[in-house]
């Protein structure tokens, strides 16, 4: 463990001990909202680390006094006061990853920012926010608070740049172990205001997979060697992949992942993941965000085998490649016969975001013995109940290319595995058609590129 050092002087940093600073920094949410000026740019933490008390108090103040603020962040939780139709003319919100955001976009004040997820800190710093607001765990014996589940994107370099750092302290947040140059801890002496909160945390239920996902997961498990370092995405498929890895008897797996969910917890409990062969953070599970519910948080809180790091470090392809046998698994919405991948839009409508997909695809392939895997069900039913293929001759007009064809390696559906690396356009098309839904193969063959 490395010794942590403070990098920012908060409003009460001159007071002798952190306990006295903690008391001096106490304020109500209404008092905190009064510190925010008309025209301010704010950076907010995501989901379980969203500053709920400030959100409510600032919304009330804006409704009474008018004015405008700009908020930047991602993964906004449902039910915020600031992002409501009544404040659409006073609050703008920019996000580089949509979840709840996609349902708010029709208000007209929610906008998407295309970036790789590791660039979040650079994007936020470029907007020069005066205020950063987040929720942390209570301080430990040395005055360090954990930015915990969803605040890894509010990098220390961003907090150092802000004039005002406001922290809500919620005892429900777990204290996640973190150390090193890109740790996710924040000292009491580095903040300018502390608001007490005891709100229930935002839980993220994991969607159950179906039979197609089980078949996909089986193919993925076959591609994972013993000693691999895994990056698994979010959703039912990721959890089923974990089950398949246990069933297959894989050994000595490691974890470095952008998002850690309950499937990784089960792999750790089973002993399949022990991180024994990793080159970076050996013996420890590395993650940016922790997504799930109370069982996961109880497992991770205070557990020394975890190491939470800033997303700029976790998703840096150069850091990813420092581990051998990195296997990255990411999702796709559709893929065309040349291998272009759309993982974030439905036609021109933004659905999710670029996220870390390309970073993990590159990092895995740069890794010694690594593999990058893109998984998708071969088909879906549209609103009218008509079966449609996710492997298409050309991407839907207006769709975003999340991963260019030059970077795609393995593509997996419930019908098999296609290895596209260094294949010609004709070879790629044939490989993809072979794993497409059988109902669409003949039509796809008629539209193959030359």
TrEMBL record:
<dbReference type="InterPro" id="IPR003702">
    <property type="entry name" value="ActCoA_hydro_N"/>
</dbReference>
<dbReference type="InterPro" id="IPR038460">
    <property type="entry name" value="AcetylCoA_hyd_C_sf"/>
</dbReference>
<dbReference type="InterPro" id="IPR046433">
    <property type="entry name" value="ActCoA_hydro"/>
</dbReference>
<dbReference type="Pfam" id="PF02550">
    <property type="entry name" value="AcetylCoA_hydro"/>
</dbReference>
<comment type="similarity">
    <text>Belongs to the acetyl-CoA hydrolase/transferase family.</text>
</comment>
<dbReference type="Pfam" id="PF13336">
    <property type="entry name" value="AcetylCoA_hyd_C"/>
</dbReference>
<keyword id="KW-0808">Transferase</keyword>
<dbReference type="InterPro" id="IPR037171">
    <property type="entry name" value="NagB/RpiA_transferase-like"/>
</dbReference>
<feature type="domain" description="Acetyl-CoA hydrolase/transferase C-terminal">
    <location>
        <begin position="292"/>
        <end position="447"/>
    </location>
</feature>
<feature type="domain" description="Acetyl-CoA hydrolase/transferase N-terminal">
    <location>
        <begin position="19"/>
        <end position="199"/>
    </location>
</feature>
<dbReference type="InterPro" id="IPR026888">
    <property type="entry name" value="AcetylCoA_hyd_C"/>
</dbReference>
<protein>
    <recommendedName>
        <fullName>4-hydroxybutyrate CoA-transferase</fullName>
    </recommendedName>
</protein>
């Amino acid at each position: 463990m490395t010794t942590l050092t403070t990098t920012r002087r908060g409003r009460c940093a001159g007071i002798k001990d952190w306990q006295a600073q903690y008391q001096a920094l106490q304020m109500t949410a209404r008092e905190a909202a009064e510190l925010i000026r008309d025209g301010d740019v704010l950076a907010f933490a995501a989901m379980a680390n969203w500053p709920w008390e400030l959100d409510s108090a600032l919304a009330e103040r804006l409704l009474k006094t008018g004015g405008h603020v700009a908020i930047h962040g991602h993964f906004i939780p449902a039910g915020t006061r600031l992002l409501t139709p009544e404040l659409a003319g006073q609050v703008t919100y920019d996000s580089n990853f949509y979840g709840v955001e996609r349902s708010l976009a029709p208000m007209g004040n929610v906008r998407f920012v295309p970036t790789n997820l590791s660039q979040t800190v650079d994007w936020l710093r470029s907007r020069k926010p005066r205020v950063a607001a987040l929720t942390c765990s209570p301080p430990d014996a040395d005055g360090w608070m954990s930015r915990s589940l969803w605040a890894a994107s509010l990098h220390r370099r961003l907090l150092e740049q802000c004039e005002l750092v406001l922290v809500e302290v919620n005892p429900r947040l777990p204290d996640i172990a973190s150390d090193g140059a890109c740790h996710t801890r924040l000292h009491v002496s580095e903040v300018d205001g502390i608001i007490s909160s005891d709100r229930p945390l935002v839980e993220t239920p994991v969607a159950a997979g179906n039979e197609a996902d089980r078949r996909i997961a089986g193919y993925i498990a076959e591609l994972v060697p013993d000693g691999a370092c895994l990056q698994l995405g979010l959703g039912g498929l990721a959890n089923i992949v974990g089950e398949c890895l246990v069933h297959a008897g894989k050994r000595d797996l490691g974890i470095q992942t952008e998002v850690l969910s309950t499937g990784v917890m089960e792999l750790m409990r089973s002993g399949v993941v022990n991180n024994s062969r990793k080159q970076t953070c050996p013996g420890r599970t590395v993650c940016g965000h922790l997504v799930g519910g109370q069982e996961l948080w109880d497992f991770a809180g205070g557990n020394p085998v975890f190491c939470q790091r800033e997303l700029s470090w976790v998703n840096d392809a150069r850091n990813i490649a420092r581990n051998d046998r990195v296997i990255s698994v990411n999702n796709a919405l559709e893929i065309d016969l040349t291998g272009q991948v759309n993982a974030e839009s439905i036609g021109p409508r933004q659905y999710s975001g670029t996220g870390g997909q390309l970073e993990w695809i590159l990092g895995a392939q740069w890794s010694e013995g690594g593999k990058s895997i893109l998984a998708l069900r071969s088909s879906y039913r549209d609103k009218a109940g008509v079966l449609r293929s996710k492997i298409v001759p050309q991407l839907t007009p207006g769709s975003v290319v999340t991963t260019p064809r030059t970077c795609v390696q393995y593509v997996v559906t419930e019908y098999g595995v296609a290895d596209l690396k260094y294949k010609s356009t004709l070879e790629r098309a044939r490989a993809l058609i072979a794993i497409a839904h059988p109902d669409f193969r003949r039509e796809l063959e008629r539209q193959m590129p030359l």
